[in-house]
């Protein structure tokens, strides 16, 4: 198999799909498809609201075009599906986007086409869920008329150092020949090289444990922070001291949100329970991390009470709403847990975040972000996200936002050790 006549179709143009489309579009005819017409329009105009790709990068991808019409990708022969895989309210996998994408692909693929999935799933999902859908609708036979690969995404939103081309890519295929071909195709754009897994299931499992391991590492640090707060010890000081040992892992406490670390573990635990194993450590870590928003709010309430600041109708400013610093992504942000908990205490909560989309925050969370910061207004200021702009303000400017008597809570260790009133 050669790449001479390769025509690539990317399904989903978010944080994962767009960088792929841009890189492949430098080498092969590539069409980026998304059902969101506004998203396609902004990309056609050379702008990316996720900030993953610059206008220059979009412009330099000479062989790339965009469409919201499924029929326009019918002539492709190598499809890559990058749709999100969220969870439901009860923390079960929500495979609806993946199923719909499989149905869409099934309606356009032809004989000998290859479909590669990048969405994070539990081991076995590609073969158990996606392939039967494609077979049923297309009436093509798997591994005879069409073939499948799996190459999990490793995009880190907002990271301008570790990007698509500089992160080693796991690849796999439904036959040895297809595995080699998929690996060679990705090898054309991944400078860091590839790792060809022995099977699709191995590749799926590798992806889902990457973020599960990170989730657990953060969970133990969060538990340390809860203990050290009771002992009146600064957690960061402890971590710095422990970090002098060569094999101590440099994790920090914090709110674990976003569309990966706080979601992926539930995909693995779902499959584990399906096969009769009840995970204990993974779910314990999830409980700790899912409860950190409430914990932060409760600690603030206690601190306000200790300073004799009236809690009822107190005015609180939350600095930051995205799930991580210097990133516009608000999906599954845990800052909302802080906001809701403080409002339950009848506090007035203002949220400021210049990185977040005001429209998206209002639509998804029912919150109107404030546009300007006003001095002398707040009983408490919570540094919830470590945006560069917040860091550059400095402690004096941040303090001026508060009333004469106020609490400055540095959740993300934006300031120095003794510059805030409390830290996570």
From TrEMBL:
Start and end residues of each UDP-glucose/GDP-mannose dehydrogenase C-terminal domain: 317-417
Keyword Oxidoreductase: yes
InterPro entries associated with the record: 6-PGluconate_DH-like_C_sf (IPR008927), NAD(P)-bd_dom_sf (IPR036291), UDP-Glc/GDP-Man (IPR017476), UDP-Glc/GDP-Man_DH_C (IPR014027), UDP-Glc/GDP-Man_DH_C_sf (IPR036220), UDP-Glc/GDP-Man_DH_dimer (IPR014026), UDP-Glc/GDP-Man_DH_N (IPR001732), UDP_ManNAc/GlcNAc_DH (IPR028359)
Keywords: NAD, Oxidoreductase
Gene Ontology BP term (one): polysaccharide biosynthetic process
Superkingdom, taxonomy of origin: Bacteria
Pfam families per record: UDPG_MGDP_dh, UDPG_MGDP_dh_C, UDPG_MGDP_dh_N
Keyword NAD (UniProt): yes
One MF annotation (Gene Ontology) recorded for this entry: oxidoreductase activity, acting on the CH-OH group of donors, NAD or NADP as acceptor
Alphabetized Gene3D superfamilies for the sequence: NAD(P)-binding Rossmann-like Domain
Recorded family membership: Belongs to the UDP-glucose/GDP-mannose dehydrogenase family.
PANTHER family xrefs: UDP-N-ACETYL-D-MANNOSAMINE DEHYDROGENASE (PTHR43491)
Protein name: Vi polysaccharide biosynthesis protein VipA/TviB
Originating species: Enterovibrio norvegicus
Lineage: Bacteria, Pseudomonadati, Pseudomonadota, Gammaproteobacteria, Vibrionales
């Amino acid at each position: 198999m050669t790449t001479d006549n390769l025509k690539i179709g990317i399904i989903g143009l978010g944080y994962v799909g767009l960088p792929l489309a841009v890189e492949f579009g430098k080498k092969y005819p590539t069409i980026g498809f998304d059902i969101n017409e506004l998203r396609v329009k902004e990309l056609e105009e050379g702008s990316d609201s996720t900030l993953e790709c610059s206008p220059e990068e979009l412009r330099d991808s000479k062989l790339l075009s965009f469409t919201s019409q499924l029929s326009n990708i019918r002539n492709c022969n190598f499809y890559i599906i990058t749709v999100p895989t969220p969870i439901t309210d009860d923390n079960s996998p929500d495979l609806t986007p993946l199923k719909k994408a499989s149905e869409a692909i099934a309606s356009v693929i032809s004989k000998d086409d290859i479909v590669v999935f990048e969405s994070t799933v539990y081991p076995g999902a590609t073969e158990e869920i996606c392939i039967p859908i494609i077979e049923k609708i297309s009436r093509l036979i798997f591994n005879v008329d069409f073939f499948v690969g799996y190459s999990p995404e490793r995009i880190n939103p907002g990271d301008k150092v570790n990007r698509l081309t500089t992160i080693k890519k796991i690849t796999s295929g439904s036959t040895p020949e297809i595995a080699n071909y998929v690996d060679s195709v990705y090898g054309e754009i991944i400078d860091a090289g590839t790792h060809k897994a022995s099977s699709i299931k191995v590749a799926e499992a590798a992806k889902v444990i990457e973020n599960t391991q990170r989730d657990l590492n953060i969970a133990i640090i969060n538990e340390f922070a809860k203990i050290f707060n009771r002992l009146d010890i600064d957690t960061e000081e402890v971590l710095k001291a422990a970090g002098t040992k060569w094999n101590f892992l440099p994790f920090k406490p914090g709110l674990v949100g976003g569309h990966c670390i706080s979601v992926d573990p539930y995909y693995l635990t779902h499959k584990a329970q399906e096969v009769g194993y009840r995970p204990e450590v993974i779910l314990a870590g999830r409980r700790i991390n899912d409860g950190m928003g409430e914990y932060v709010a409760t600690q603030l309430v206690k601190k306000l009470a200790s300073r004799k600041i009236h809690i009822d109708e107190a005015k609180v400013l939350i600095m930051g709403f995205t799930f991580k610093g210097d990133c516009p992504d608000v999906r599954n942000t845990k800052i909302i847990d802080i906001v809701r908990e403080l409002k339950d205490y009848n506090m007035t909560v203002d949220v400021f975040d210049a990185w977040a989309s005001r429209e998206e925050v209002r639509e998804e969370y029912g919150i109107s972000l404030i546009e300007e910061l006003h001095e002398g207004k707040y009983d408490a200021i919570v540094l919830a996200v470590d945006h560069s702009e917040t860091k550059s303000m400095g402690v004096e400017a941040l303090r001026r936002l508060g009333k004469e008597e106020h609490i400055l809570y540095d959740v993300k260790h934006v300031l120095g050790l003794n510059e805030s009133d409390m830290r996570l």
